[in-house]
């Protein structure tokens, strides 16, 4: 299994995390619907391999009204 970035122990990962947070804030300030923003963040979480983030963004997208079909197909 490959090691993942640990934002608590790696200075490089901590720096990257700051950019990820900034991107999320920029999305929050945009006119994109909340459900679409969550799909974007869900896909990024899938690419990054972060199970906790995938879980969170799936739940947030569902709460924002996203359909199950689109949630299942976001990685396609």
Automatic annotation (TrEMBL):
InterPro entries reported for this sequence: AhpD-like, AhpD_core, CMD-like
Residue ranges of every copy of the Carboxymuconolactone decarboxylase-like domain listed in the record: 16-75
Keyword Glycoprotein: no
GO terms for MF: peroxiredoxin activity
Gene3D superfamilies associated with the record: AhpD-like (1.20.1290.10)
UniProt KW ATP-binding keyword: no
Keywords: Oxidoreductase, Peroxidase
Domain of life of the source: Bacteria
Name this polypeptide is given: Alkylhydroperoxidase
Species in which this protein is naturally found: Streptomyces katrae
